[in-house]
Amino acid sequence: MDFIQLLASGLANGCVYGLIALGFVLIYKATEAVNFAQGDFMMLGAFICVGFANEDFLGWSFWTAVPLSIFFMSVFGYLFNWGVLRHMFGRSQTAIVILTIALGFILRFAAGTIWSHEPVSLETPYAGKDVSFGGVVLGIDEILGVIVTIILTISLFIFFSKTKLGLAMQAASQNQLAAYYMGIPVKRIQSMVWGLSGAVAAVAGILFASKGAIDPSAGLLGIKAFAAAAIGGFGSLPGALLGGLIIGIVEPLSSRYAPPGVSQIAPYAILLVVLIFRPGGIFSQTQKKKV
Fold first, then answer.
1. pLDDT tens by residue, 141-188
2. Residue 235: what pLDDT?
3. Are 107 and 44 in contact (CB under 8 A)?
4. Residue 19: closest CA among 222, 233, 266
5. Which residue, among 142, 152, 125, has the nearest Cα to 63 in the 3D structure?
6. DSSP letter for each residue of the chain
7. Has this prediction a pTM greater than 0.85?
């Protein structure tokens, strides 16, 4: 029973990793860039919701704070690409990576300055409420995390594979010049992807903050989420979720049954094994660029 409880809790944590990894994959699918500030987007989205919902701040209704936070982060992601990244068009991917790493430091400093560096918890209507299944106890927040993650993953998969806008986003990533000549507004689409990624990060942040305390250093969870995206396969939305679930499950199990300290390195050990035997990730997608 202890094993099943750890497994269930690990799945809930893995969903948060999976959502952050989805942000990595979204941007990579549409722009072939890697946003190393994705974890900090998650952290900022959580703090914005805290600012709207908690009594110590604005004290608005939780159900009002959630959509406002998601909207704010989508606008933030859009404006970041529109105001900053667009001016780096043609620069190397290394320059973009360094820029997003610097953005992460700035966001952690800003969050600490505004909300303090002390951990805070998001006040939710379902805080402390549990559901029991045959001796396994799960919090409502954990169940919501699993449900929301599955719905988002399926929705985004359908969006990218079935809708004209989603296909245009993928076309823009494969060959920006050709997409531009075909009438696709490449720059606007890229900004929209960053906005969508910011919204997904806000959802992940809200779910994470509702499960426990949040502080500015929570943005560093993006490192584990990056590992999750690499394990599942960059470019694969289901792969991002699978990678997050793998890490989420391995952490509590290794913490319980393995020697001390193993749980901290287990996700990266799995990443190393996957990269050795399947460099493209579990759901590797080998695509040829259209020229």
1. 888 988 999 899 889 888 888 888 888 777 776 666 677 777 777 778
2. 76
3. yes
4. 222
5. 125
6. -HHHHHHHHHHHHHHHHHHHHHHHHHHHHHHS---TTHHHHHHHHHHHHHHHHSTTTT---HHHHHHHHHHHHHHHHHHHHHHTGGGGTT--HHHHHHHHHHHHHHHHHHHHHHH-SS-EE---TTTT-EEEETTEEEEHHHHHHHHHHHHHHHHHHHHHHHSHHHHHHHHHHH-HHHHHHTT--HHHHHHHHHHHHHHHHHHHHHHHHHHSEE-GGGGGHHHHHHHHHHHH-TT-HHHHHHHHHHHHHHHHHHHHHSPTTHHHHHHHHHHHHHHHH-TT-TT----PPP-
7. yes
Q: Which two tokens stand for residue 20?
A: 């952050």
Q: Is 236 inside any structural domain?
A: no
* Exposed/middle/buried for residue 218 (C-beta within 10 Å: 0-12, 13-18, 19+): buried
252: its two tokens: 């509590």
Contact between 25 and 236 (Cβ < 8 Å): yes
Q: Beta strand 130-133 with 120-121: parallel, antiparallel or unpaired?
A: unpaired
Establish if 5 belongs to a structural domain. no
Domain count, the chain: 1
Q: Which domain holds residue 107?
A: 10-219
Flag whether 20 is in a domain.
yes
